[in-house]
Amino acid sequence: MADGLDRLWTPHRMTYISGGDRPEGGYERPGGCPFCLAPQRSEPENLVVARGEHVFVVLNLYPYNPGHLLVCPYRHVADYTDLDDRETAELAAVTQTAMRVIRRVSSAHGFNLGMNQGGVAGAGIAAHLHQHVVPRWGGDANFMPVIGRTKVLPQLLGDTRALLASAWPS
Ligand SMILES: [Zn+2]
User: Fold this and answer.
1) E strand or H helix at 36, and its extent?
2) N or C: at which end does the chain have fewer Cβ atoms within 10 angstroms?
């Protein structure tokens, strides 16, 4: 999800999206796709927050804000219209749960929700659908990203995952 912003921290333990680990054949094939691989690995290293029947929730490795989640179908499909009815319904319900959990643990003031469909629309990994859930707080779009092109993230990904996973309804 390259956005041109520098980040002050990079101690994430996940390496699956880091450029040096780019798989042969790229991210677009299931064998190299981080959204196919993440649920096959075990928590907490995979940064998966919750698992549903048809979709799962994983932290974005390049968050815009702490708690930036991705809701993904297990199936390697690219387009929103590729989802069947059960996947569509669960993706919507899990997005609502994500908002409730984030509000409870971090008192988010607002959210950006959405899916980038296709590389031209900004999807970093266009081949596997993912719904962004980005918590927003008043003042989070301050001078640092706007002027300094640097995003400050006060919480490490592993800590964020633990916080959200512990608050997720079972
Ligand atoms: Zn995939």
Assistant:
1) helix 34-37
2) C
d(C-alpha 61, C-alpha 117), whole Å: 19
H helical segments located in 9-156: 34-37, 85-106, 143-146
C-alpha torsion sign, points 133, 137, 139, 140: negative
CA-nearest of 16, 110, 120 to 64 is 110
pTM as predicted: 0.79
Q: 29: CA distance to ligand 1 center in Å? A: 7
Task: Determine the 3-state secondary structure of 7 from DSSP.
Answer: strand
* Residue 135 alpha carbon to ligand 1 centre in Å: 24
Q: What distance in angstroms lies between residue 52's CA and the mean position of ligand 1's atoms? A: 16
Mean pLDDT value across residues 87-111: 96
Q: Find out whether 75 and 87 touch, Cβ atoms under 8 Å.
A: yes
CA separation (Å) from 79 to 73, 91, 115, 153, 164?
Answer: 11, 13, 9, 30, 27
Across 51-62, average pLDDT: 95
Check if 130 is active-site: yes
User: What is the Å distance from ligand 1's center to 103 Cα?
Assistant: 29
Which one is catalytic: 12, 68, 128, 130?
130
Contact between 117 and 127 under an 8 Å Cβ cutoff? The reply is: no
